Amino acid sequence: MDKLLHGTAADGTVRVMAAVTTQIVAEAVRRHQTSPTVSAAFGRVLTGTLLLGASLKEFDRLTVKIECKGAVGGIISETTAAGKVRGYVRNPQAELPTNDNGKFNVSGIVGEGMFHVIRESGYDIGLYREPYYGSVPIISGEIGEDFAYYLAKSEQIPSAVLLGVLLQKTEPFVSAAGGVMLQIMPGANEHIVTMIEDTIRHAPQLTSFVREGATAQDLTQLALGEIEYSILEEKPIEFACNCSPQRAVALIGSLGKAEVESMLREDKGALMTCGFCNEHYRLGERQLQEILDSFDS
Ligand code: ZN
User: Nearest-CA neighbor of 196 among 163, 225, 164?
Assistant: First the structure.
């Protein structure tokens, strides 16, 4: 099971979030049928969203939305405070040749654009508060650096973010995925900051550790080196969507009576596909007729 850890170090002046997301990314890749380079980009965004979510307290739904000019066209990732995550990719099959060093050209497939963070709270208890919005330009397209840039510019938190997805040629196509986010809080000791920078600079590729079985705790230790830390929370995380047959019916109904009548007359049914999980919902004539009857009652 994938896990997300939230911890603290150096007398609370360093916040650490770490996650193993291999199963989540594999499920996202399976559902959206993404190309290898898109899988790498998408997996990093899903992982980064979970890490960012672990560092924030006040939200019910956190959305990271990448609007970009590269071939992928856009990526959306959404997490709940309970650690469920889902996502959408505009062009799942977009692809580019690998870089000279054999790495996936993630920054190339993302390209220029904007990195948005939307934080919503209260909607599930009917106490809807104004959502919080933060936006920065995409500065790297490698995703990890973009999360770090967002934190520095929009939340004034210096941070280091490592995100990785390791792919394989056979199913489930994802052999390891995970990430670490370190946030430096006000009052952090210069010496600690230098130690962290040093450790991160020399840190080996984190996904190869995950493939060998490293846990979220191991990744935390890897990022912090000699610095001791304590765990505030460690929880299971999963790819999950809140769509359902009932929601599909409600959505069709919201299109209006005329639209439903024409679906019934011309198509004898309706097919809905959830953008976040690629689940299909097929409504037959009887179901469409029931929706129409509900307009009259
Ligand atoms: Zn769905």
Answer: 225
